[in-house]
Amino acid sequence: MSSLAARRRHPAALVIVLLFGLIVTGGLYAALAPKNADAATSSSSDIAAGKQLFLSNCATCHGVNATGGNEAPDLVGVGAAAVDFQVGTGRMPLAAPGIQAEADTNGPQFDNKQISQLAAYVASLGPGPGIPASDLTSGGGDIAKGGELFRVNCAMCHNFAGSGGALTRGKFAPSLMDVSGKHMYEAMETGPQSMPVFNNTNMSPTDKKDIISFLQNTKDEPNQGGANLGNLGPVPEGLFVWTIGIGLLIGAAVWLGRKAA
Amino acid sequence: MTTLNEDTSGRSADALRADDTTEAPTGNGGAIGGVANWVDERTGAAKGVRFLMKKVFPDHWSFMLGEIAMYSLIIVLITGTFLTFWFVPSMSESVYNGPYVPLRGITMSDAFKSTVDISLDVRGGLLIRQIHHWSALIFIVAIMLHMFRVFFTGAFRKPREINWIIGLVLSMLVLVEGFIGYSLPDDVLSGTGVRAAQGFMLSIPIVGSYIAYFLFGGGFPGTAIIPRFFTIHVLLLPAIIVGLFTAHIILVMVHKHTQYPGPGKTDKNVVGFPLMPVYTAKAGGFFFVVFGVTALIAGLVTIDPIWMYGPYEPTMITAGSQPDWFMGFADGALRLLPGFLEFTLLGHTWSFNVMLGAILLIPILWTLMGVYPFVESWVTGDKREHHVLDRPRNVPTRTGLGMAAIAFYAVLFGAAGNDIIAIKLHLSIDDITNTLRIMLVAAPVIVFWVTKRVCLSLQRKDRDLVLHGKETGRIVRTAEGRFFEAHEPLDEYERWRLVSFEAHRPIAAPAETDENGVRSKTASADRTRARLSQFFFNDRIEPVTPLELAAAHHDGQADEALAPLEAAALEDAHPGEFGGHLHGGAEEIEEHNAYAHQQGSDDDA
Amino acid sequence: MTTPSNPSDKESSVTHDSTSEAGDDRALVSLEHREGSDNLPERFQDPGLPAHIHRAGDSDEAAARRYERQVAALFAISMFATVLFVVSYFAVGNDTVVSLPIIGRTMALHVSLGVTLGMSLLCIGLGAIHWAKTLMPDTEVVEERHELRSPDEAREGAVKILADGLEGSQLKRRPLIKYTLGGALGLFAIPLGLQLVGSLGPLPHTDLETTLWDSKLPGGKPRRLMRDPDGTAIRLSDVTLGSVFHVLPEGIDATPDPNNEKLKAAVILISLQENLIKSARERKWGVDGVVAYSKICTHVGCPVGLYEQTTHHLLCPCHQSTFDLTEDCKVIFGPAKRALPQLKISVDDEGYLVADHGFDQPVGPSFWERA
Predict the structure, then answer these.
(1) According to the model, what pLDDT value does residue B568 have?
(2) Is residue A58 annotated as involved in ligand binding?
(3) Which domain-ending residue is among C134, C149, C177?
(4) Nearest-CB residue to A226 (from C97, C110, C227)
(5) Which ranges of chain C have pLDDT less than 50?
(6) CA B204 – CA B197 distance, rounded (Å)
């Protein structure tokens, strides 16, 4: 104990503690990080059950006929895709009014069956985009083409690696790294919140499939050159070099300049 | 005209030859000695070696900051040379068919393609590239910290003003060099940066568009910019940087290294360790430490993943488009400058919203830094050589000014990351920008004031330490049952460190008119100088003099440090005297009156 | 007060004298203390270097041997790491992936090369420094400094040589040489400068003011708006409310320098509810609420791609200039001054969107010639 206490002031102690802390934090994060819920699609539609769910959970804002309210949009014609995206990612029902609805890290408030019932009900109100077929949302497209499309249409908001980015007045484009292919497709098709619409007249289903394939590849791809620092560009690199990088070197310089025992 | 051959008396060459021996002096160091002898007979290098190897360097960690920069420069030169063997500085386009799937079939410039190949195809290529890039970042961090060290310790004073300016020029060139290096791979991020740089050039009045069209060989992007940047990056700027750096180092040798104040250290000596063997091992070893740490970082942390950014196209952009950190302050300035600074006048567009941040900021800041040593020496009237450094607290105004400049820089730097701050802290980017706009003006003022006050407080603490000694933690009880803490006086070595500085005093302006009523030609300059001098030195703490210490002893304060018994006896003799000093507490010194200290001591007595 | 180290330097001593003469009464130490303290010096004296403190290795041979072993061990680790580097270089596959804490899945070759190279170098450095600190002599050495100023005679000598040289050159006596030499030296760099500046690039002419939208297709037909990067034409009916199209002019790949054309001609096409549009011009230059604006920021030229469907704001990701699409893309935040220029569009016979004519003003960043 006393020898440990004596070494507490050793110059390497800080480095060791720092490294230990980083490893523990990283390990804990890897163990505890929320896993992506596997949302299976359900083809069964029970419009009546959906309507009941709607009336008890959504009608306060969106109105009993789903025609919208002061703050909430009209849902006639938004289609099943919009419901599946908004409810499936936990954005709706809205927990609290905020600058923008955020995906709920605890997952959606309804199970898959209830979501499909809600979607079926809203889809019955007017024609709109449906839930995409799984062959469009599970990869297998042209990754390189998807990357090019992503850089022209998406990277300005979501960043080159889908890490997310800032919009005006506190709004932001979320990270795409933990978003399922189906939800990405639905978001492109319906344009939730600030996001513009990339429906089939704008961007073909194949293009969307390519983009999803590119993002899934980006997520699965091993880091080519070590830790990626969140793929946020030069800012974290600058932070790293100003803290750990120069910190290690100054530590060595302090050791070098001190008289030996 | 007489020819030399006929003049036998002047045949010095013959005379010399007569004395000469045909046998070389025998070396006594084996094979190495033989080689050394061979070299010295042809170059006379031994004298230089003797001179160099005896050079003395003082030990201090902050003296290694410049070495980190120097070694990073060497690392960058080595790895940069490697990279040129694979990099193709061309904007000709072709289709990528390499192993990296997300880019296969995409049309890209050869510059980008060869960088992707270096990164993902050449074995160990990515390591070299990442060492190069990380090292460049560390290089500039080290330059900046080195510059801070030099500034805050007053190492720029006579005779080192020239080296300060060489250092400034180096640091500015390195920024340009770094920016160009970041631009070479022609990826989406760097292409955006080059595009912005072209926008900067366009903002220059009259010649802006000409400069841009000449440099780019036409409209942006053209096909000339990467090859031209490459020549500038690997030939022109490195040659200038290495040349200036050599001059920088030679001047360090000529001036001999500065040293921190301490016993035995004067302006007439340098105390430390000789180059041979200690600093050869320490500094040589430190090169390997810097290289090793850089290599470890490069092996473990990605930098500039251009294969993910993708090849540049003028229509593409990514969120979080930032330059490398060292250009962040200029980019931040561009984000903060309001749009109304652009206006039309006399039929032309004046884009101060761009020009101020992108074109003028760096020259203005560097000029201010360049003239500072001359301003300070003018204000102090101090024309002596200085080799003992200032402790930053002993020069509160300079330290305050330096910290204010850092605060200004830091606000600009933070502004360049406003979008990343917004998403990571869930703040509004508009609010951040507006806050930083206010802080850009307010922060330097506040930081200046706070730093100066902190420096003065630290100086007071030093005075207390000298006058009253260190707190020992020993509590002494007097006969009456009162308690006080025994203080131990500083030994003379420790004391010297705290009292050896000089406190400059404000200069009063000389009379504006002489006895004949003639107005002095320098009257207004003198007035300015007096005002500046007031600003610099009105608030100051003077070092303790032997007189003051003696007074403190006489008053019994320092005697607290004597053996408890003696102290107790003293307390008996002077009842009530310890009341004010039980905590080793300092007397309050009025801000406007540095001399109140002596007055205060008198009052205590 | 203080004695200047250089007594010949009058200025500093004068400075200090003048201070006390100026009647700064605060500077006067109280007389009481002066009395009886006459023998005390004005300032403390430098006590000189403190006694040398020996290290463990200086007297204790066992400690010295321990240090020797530590240094040797560090050098040995370095050699070992170097061998590992060579082994990794040849043995680790290009596609081998390894999972590491914090870093995650990463390429084994890169990490192993980096770590072994780093260890190989770092251990040499640590070993050498440890050696220097523990075993090499650590008695401090004092090197004397000398004033940098040359002695007067050397200065005079230098001045004399220069003066003699000038005299010997007869430059003063022969003004003809002086002036012609001055002229020649003053002008000799002009050819080199002229060649460089003259040949680097073309003059801008009207390049900054024009875009591909200004010209019609070879057949005289107006250019259609095409999707970037697909290059397909866009029908008015394709542009549904809230969607955004990144657009380039038809025929851009047939131009001599497509990248330069893209830079200037990139357009963003957005469908708004027509009643939201506040500017009559904007409504007129669009079709049923579908409007096209230059995508090039008027600040320094980044593509302004971020469209917020709900607020109808366009945001530039470089410096956060924000443009309001409902008000003719005027700047509502950030460093840009001018609104984004609008492209007048209409629908051709086949239902595709076309540009009627080019922008009515130069796109992109400001420049001097721009009125």
Answers:
(1) 44
(2) yes
(3) C134
(4) C110
(5) 1-37
(6) 12
